[in-house]
Amino acid sequence: MKILVCIKQVPDMESKFKVNPEGTWYDNVDLAWRMNEYDEYAVEQAVQLKGQVGDADLTVFSIGPNRVKETMKKALAMGCDHGVHVADDDSYQKDPFQIASIIAGFAKDKGFDLIFTGMQSQDRGSAQVGVLVAELLNLPCISTIVDFAYLDGKVSVKRELEGGGRALVSCNAPVLVTCQLGLNVPRYPTLPNIMKAKKKEILSIEVAELLNVTARQETSKLYFPEKKGGGLVLEGDAGDLADQLIKILRDKTSVLA
Q1: Number of structural domains in the chain
Q2: With CB atoms counted within 10 Å of each terminal CB, which end of the chain scores lower, N or C?
């Protein structure tokens, strides 16, 4: 079995964010970096599947500057066999369609039986990349999975629906699934596995070799929400409250002008 898991390196959400000078994304300076949380569930599920089937080859794939290799090493220490790094210092400027096209360009004709991605990234949050990859590869896709089982070439999953509902979906491989929080409990890499990961191969590919589409979206402006004043709490009897409210509306707004 051939398995592919796609991960993204994102800033630690506890970092102090600043908007970059261009005003289109966050400034990368002085940020701490980690694996996207949704992708940790994808890696764990891929490793569990590899352990279940026994004879499997598990590739971890990531796009970005050279620093993403450190995050890829965590996936290797969790149990992935080798990595593929697409070198792109400007990956943050790529829209979901371009990112999906890069992944699909690599995965095409590789014969992957299962592709795992996170449901969405914590920084961009589009939740589009996984389903776009499936579309570009002409694969079935099951999104937002919270339970996973594999038997005799068939995947059975539970996917999260709005309102707390869940749907049970079955599909024959090959298939792509996007992983939601709570799917499993991602393992902590042990020290021996961390040391082994240092010897595992990470193949680097230039983004120009895989990217052959133009962006469909453009970020025109990024900014923090405007700070607004707090609300005013009125207390007292109903009659007094009505008088207070009328006075506020007359003095501070144009509603009763």
Answers
A1: 1
A2: C
Which of 67, 76, 190, 177 has its CA nearest to residue 130? Answer: 177
Write the DSSP assignment of 201-246 as a string of letters.
Answer: -EEEEEGGGT-----S-------PPPP-PPP----S-HHHHHHHHH
Mean pLDDT of the 215-231 span: 80
52 part of a folded domain: yes
Q: Give the mean pLDDT of 220-249.
A: 81
Q: Residue 68 in 3-state DSSP?
A: helix
pLDDT of 252 strictly over 80: no
Buried-state track 191-213, b at ≥16 Cβ within 10 A, e below 16? eeeeeebeebebeebebeebbee
Q: Residue 116 sits in which domain range?
A: 2-209
CB 69 within 8 A of CB 35: no
Looking up tokens 């694969």 gives 139
- Three-state DSSP class for 160? strand
C-alpha 154/C-alpha 171 separation (Å) is: 6
Rounded Cα distance between 3 and 46, Å, is 7
253 located within any domain:
no
Among 189, 9, 190, 3, smallest CA distance to 82 is for 3
Q: How far is CA 80 from CA 90, 102, 152, 242, in A?
A: 26, 20, 22, 66
Using CB atoms within 10 A of its CB, is residue 169 exposed (0-12), middle (13-18) or buried (19+)? middle
The 10s digit of each residue's pLDDT in 140-185 is 999 999 999 999 999 999 999 888 889 999 999 999 999 999 899 9
**What CATH number is attached to the domain comprising 17?**
3.40.50.620
